[in-house]
Amino acid sequence: MIETAEIQPDLIQQLAKLLRHKAYRMVVAESCTGGWLAKVLTDLPGSSDWFDRGYVTYSNQAKHEMLGVNQETLDQFGAVSLETVQEMTKGALDESGADVAVAISGIAGPGGGSDEKPVGTVCFSFLFSNGESVLDQLCFKGDRDQVRRQSVIHALETVIEQLKHV
User: Fold this and answer.
1) What share of the chain is helix, strand, coil (3-state, %, to 5)?
2) pLDDT below 50 — which residues of the chain?
3) Calpha distance 22→30 (Å, rounded)
4) What dihedral do alpha carbons 151, 157, 159, 160 form, nearest 10°?
5) How many helices (H) and strands (E) does the chain have?
6) pTM for this one?
7) Sign (positive/negative) of CA torsion 17, 148, 7, 47?
């Protein structure tokens, strides 16, 4: 795992190049990362060409109201689940009209973990307007900042890899 890695600007540049080449716009729906992914994306000048918007839906109520995550999904599986992030990306695409959506929800710590979902558990969803979907769940090591940083890096690396095949 990437415990203390820095978010490399070349990751953002590589993503921007792929999105521009495909004429795609991107939307993000974040929970545990608190807008960090949107922040690093918009650090690149010209990102308005390919970045549409970001949702920071930290509470279950925000996930439900802003992205249309079903209350039943939240009740049955919890905010940190593949089911929830999948609905987050669907809602983000539906609300924005973008071409690619990324959702992140996790337990960054130091508290909030359980035996089933320990601190460091993070769920990801990547959804493309053509219907392609990728779900991923990882458990990162480190403190709150390290878990969040690794989540952003993993999201960037995964969406880049997926864009190469869409």
Assistant:
1) 45, 20, 35
2) 1-4
3) 24
4) 160
5) 6, 5
6) 0.95
7) positive
